[in-house]
Structures are given as C-alpha cells and as structure tokens.
Amino acid sequence: MLSTSPLGPRRRSAAVLAAAVLAVGAAGCGSSGSPSTGQANPSASASANPDAGVLGIRDPWVKAADKGMTAAFGTLVNDGDSDVTLTGAATSVSPMELHEMTMKDGTMVMRAKQGGVVIKAKSTHALEPGGDHLMLMNLAKPVQAGDELTFTLTFADGRTQQFTAVAKPFTGAQESYAPGHGQPMPGMSATPETSMSPAS
Fold first, then answer.
1. Are 162 and 134 in contact (CB under 8 A)?
2. Cβ-based burial of 138 (10 A; exposed 0-12, middle 13-18, buried ≥19)
3. What is the Cα Rg of the chain in Å?
4. Element (H or E) spanning 72, and its range?
5. Which pick of 40, 117, 178, 180 has the fewest CB atoms within 10 Å?
6. 46-81, pLDDT tens digit by residue?
7. What pTM did the predictor assign?
8. Backbone angles phi, psi at 13, to 5 degrees
9. CA atoms of 183 and 80, how far apart (whole Å)
10. What does 75-117 look like in DSSP terms, one character per residue?
C-alpha cells in the first residue's frame, strides 16, 4: 500500500492545480461578462476623451533659446482614413502660431500658415527648421537644453491632443525666427535677441 505513495502526492498536486485553474477561469469569465467592465468602458472613455491620439508625433523637439522666439519640430503621422487639419498650438511658456517658410520676392520669409497644416490621410507631415513649424512667439522664460515642454494641438474639428517635446541646442540651419525672416513684427526688433540661438 505504501509503495503507491509517490503517485498519491502527484495526484493531489494535479487536483490542486486543476482547482486553481478552474477558480481563475471562473473569476475571469465572471468579470468579463459583467456589464460594468470589459469593452463597454474603453469605448465610452475613448469617445469622451478628446485627447485620444488624433495624430502620431515622432521625434518632437524644441530649439533651446534664452529669450525671444523659438520653435517646436517633429513629424506628424496620420494613420487614419481622413485628412486632419492642425489649426493651433499652445504651451505655457509662450504664445504660439503655426508658421511656414515661403518664397516672397526671391527671399525666404516666415509667415503664419493660413488655413492650418493639413496632414493627409495615411501620410506624414514634417515640422522642421526651414519649413513648417510650431512657433513660440515670446518666451516667458529660457528654454534650456533638456527642458521638457508640453504642447496642446488644436484641430479643425475641435479635437485637441497633447505631447511633450525635449529642448535641444541646434545651430544647423542658422535660421532667424524673427517674423519675416529678419523683418520685425510691429513692436519687436529684428536684432539677434529675437532670433533663435542655442541655449548657453
């Protein structure tokens, strides 16, 4: 009779394991069938949440600057089936505008982008130095390399989306972010103080 004892503990272990699996399975079935859990809540919260990813934003960054103006960049990714129009941007450290670089009388000038930035369905749109960008107009404090800024984007359909970008020193294009690419906006000077420079 004692010679069968090695099988006894194995049978007991198997029975305990089977009971545990059944208990977990029953608990899982009970909660997934409950009307207050499962897929009902995620879809309700997604439809109620206007910040639920209108666009993907790849490699967002801000050019570090001590004062005056600077800009935010990155790649806007529209994986949806409809075009998306970005109409505004905001951050706590500065008023903002959507800007573009364009040719005027043979000179590259910066100006507000009329009608917003359209990101076509199933495509990307680059925000980059020398091109479209999110302009920080009048810094309330320095934006130093390593700082993280939170931005809120507004779209033509009223949705909004937040993202965070890290400030980086950048001297690449040597672009001026004074309005009109060197021509002052009313009430502002076109001196180097209002152009972008790396944080010291």
1. no
2. middle
3. 28
4. strand 70-78
5. 40
6. 333 344 589 999 999 999 999 999 999 999 999 999
7. 0.63
8. -60, -40
9. 39
10. EEEE-SSS-EEEEEEEETTB-EEEEEEEEETTEEEEEE-TT-E
